[in-house]
Structures are given as C-alpha cells and as structure tokens.
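Data deposition worksheet. Section B asks for the primary sequence of the deposited chain exactly as it was used as input, without tags or linkers unless they were present during the calculation. Section C holds the resulting structure in token form. Section D is free text for depositor observations; keep each observation to a single sentence. Incomplete worksheets are returned to the depositor.
Section A, Depositor: J.P.
Section B:
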Amino acid sequence: MRQVIASAFVSLDGVMQAPGGPDEDRSGGFEYGGWVAGTWDDGVGEAIGRVFERPFDLLLGRKTYEIFAAHWPRVPDDDPIARQFNACRKYVATSSDAPLAWANSTAIHDAATEVRRLRQTDGPDLLVQGSSGLLKTLLAERLVDEITLLTFPLVLGKGKTFFSDESRPGAYSVVASSLTPSGIFIATYRPSRPVPTASFALDSPGEEEIARRRNIEAGG
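Section C:
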C-alpha cells in the first residue's frame, strides 16, 4: 500500500502560502511571499533532502502544479530535486480538462476517490507539496499518512493554512524532530488516535463555576 506523505513550510500561525517568492501566490492580498528565503539555513536544506531521498510520485493541486511546471523544467538536471521532480509521475487534482504539459503528468478529477485508489496500487509513496486546497480534502478524508512540517519562527497574520476547519480531529505521534540554527522546528507526525480529553475541574464545582457554565449555555 502506498503512503500519502505531506510536507510543507509553515509559519507559527500555520500559514503555508507563497513560501518561495513574492509572485508565487498573491491571492487574498497576501503580501509576504518569499518568507522562507529570509530565514533559510543549511538545516532546512538537509531536512528537504531527507524528504526526497526515497522514491516518490508527486500529488499536487492545480495551482501548485502550475508553479512547479513553470519552474522545475527550467532547472538543470544536475540539481537532484529538479531531476527527481522532472522524472517522477505527477498526479494533479483539477477540475479542468486543460492539457498538462509537464512530462509524466496525469489529471485526477475526484481527488478523494482517486487517492484512495492510488494508495492501493503498486508504486512509490505519494508526496504532497504545497497544494493547500488539495490538503483540505485529504485531511478531511483522513488520507494523509505522514506529515512533515518545517515551522519557521514567523507570524504572517493571514494566508492559506495547512490545517483548516475541515480537518478531522485527531492526535498525532511525533516520529522525528530537530531544530535548525535559525530556529526552524522540523517535525514528522503520524496519525495515532482520537483526541484524548480529560478535566482539571474540581469534582464538586462551586457556585461561581456553576453560574459560569450556565452563562455559557445561555450564550453569554
């Protein structure tokens, strides 16, 4: 069974929009495109190398595909990531029938159904890069097996986020983590169990607590 593995650059407030450059994605009036470049260090490069060290196919949303397709074919093949990206199979979640010009690209029109099918086929793992819209679908359908987040010590205040209100609740296990010299926290997570809940409340709440709860129930 193939695994769906997502990796992303995120800010402290969970924004993943336009990490690579000012013109990558200005939608929603986003003005901080290229926020990764100003804090990049060698530790990030090493972590990215680990993400791409095993065989993979790419699983992309249409907008991320267009960003990649305009960039990576122009990067010389002596760059190892360019060589891998240009050679691998690309599955593109899109509602359009427009042709996909980047080599080895295949359109998928029902992302959840097609990803379920792809997971049952032979082949390398399916690596999601960027693709915030696609991620919403995959996380809502519990179709992501592993997540690597590279969290930069920045607050961006607005923008497309990795998790959304559509994400399914759940607890995750940390299977690897590291901190780079620039303070970028890199962690790999796998879904583990339902959200555990407990309470620090007193066994016998006082009058103030009872009144507080009633006020909340009344919409106060």
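Section D:
The first strand starts at residue 4 and ends at 11.
The CA atoms of residues 136 and 165 lie 9 Å apart.
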